[in-house]
Amino acid sequence: MTTDQLLANIKKKQSFLCVGLDSDLNKIPGHIKNDKRAVFEFNKKIIDATAPYAIAYKPNLAFYECRGIEGWKDFELTVTYLRENYPDVFLIADAKRGDIGNTSKMYAQAFFESSDVDAVTVAPYMGEDSVKPFLQFEGKFVILLALTSNPSAADFQYYSSVDHKPLFAEVLDKSKTWGNVENLMYVVGATKASVLVKIREQIPDHFLLVPGVGAQGGSLEEVAEYGMNKRCGLLVNASRSIIFAGSDTDFAEKAEAEARNLQQKMAELLKQANLI
Amino acid sequence: MTTDQLLANIKKKQSFLCVGLDSDLNKIPGHIKNDKRAVFEFNKKIIDATAPYAIAYKPNLAFYECRGIEGWKDFELTVTYLRENYPDVFLIADAKRGDIGNTSKMYAQAFFESSDVDAVTVAPYMGEDSVKPFLQFEGKFVILLALTSNPSAADFQYYSSVDHKPLFAEVLDKSKTWGNVENLMYVVGATKASVLVKIREQIPDHFLLVPGVGAQGGSLEEVAEYGMNKRCGLLVNASRSIIFAGSDTDFAEKAEAEARNLQQKMAELLKQANLI
Question: A208 and A185 in contact (C-beta within 8 Å)?
């Protein structure tokens, strides 16, 4: 997918919502929990209910890997289901991979060839040669961790140099030379919305994947105020607040209501920015 | 496994060799490549040939994930084979995972419960709450990335603070308070052997997993000189230089010779250190 196509989808659905498929088997409603393919069945219903309001989906690999081969099957079935039924959605494997060059190349093949996602999240700690293999696939994106939304993000991401530049800013400055807006995006945690101003000075044009809205407490309005650019430039993710909005037979309706609610707020913000 | 058991195995085999199972299907000898379970069959032969000389094995998940479910099966079969036939070896999933707390917990379950490895490599970028869930399993280890062996390690791992302390040293100082020698080890790239002196001042007692000996060019003697402690404290990994020492029907014999050669050097170094 290109950013032009992504922007077209944002305008069409009046939304920049990404639904995080953190589909923890333990939290899946009881009436489908015992299905052999419970996680996939759950995902299908969540996807069907939220697709009118979401332009992206983000399965988090941890919630699939934790069940070994069976979990991996649910992941692959989910990817195939999305591709076949909703070919326009932007599909992110939230895997936070990263290894030495020849190994990263294998991870890139895992997600861009064996599987067929549009983007994969990558951790920057090992530097350029660990990221570059992911940038070699036409129409595919690295989403590099810059500033994450968890409390311990401050442990190292704010580690400061002699000129008081935090590590995450160094990650942005160095990595933006490795790729371009058509193959590189960044994870920027919404819980630090005020920092978005400075980040936008560094990377005005890249798309940002913003977690932390919803269960983690970030503000959508602040994210839009400080993070939106002239091509939207935002994918705002909500996971648990949507997919586990309900815990009974009406979980899909509750997820739909939650997604629609976010989409309506997003439509308003897109209008304010004259993007729709 | 405890570090006492690990040390006992080091003394028994007179070796601190870890064999990296970076079992790239494209590099597997032609006569077994077409077997449906080629990677597992290859691993079995490599393991049987090298087990007298190795105290640890380290499958790198990228080389399994890149083939989706089939690759994951080969990984699980390899883990089971090692557990059943070589219960004494220390088994490391080289996965370089790390995510927000509730997600890291899922990854920890993936490797310590769904699978049954002794240790998993973890990336530190997201800080304490991304690492801690891996530290909650009795007898299991986090092996945290500190200084890696790839050329681009310098991009961020040497990023320096106002008092000129590189990021990797900050990672060591902070993280060593999160666990102890019985649940935490570190990845320290052998290609920076001279840095080992300073690292040993920071963490005198932890075990280090040292990649970069062999195909990546690090020196075993330097690693032992600067990195060994009174309980050995080293797991030196070699991957490609052993498993792809040969590319024909004699690949297992060639791997055995390479592993034995390293083990003999290690026995000498252990004797010099009065550990055996």
Answer: yes
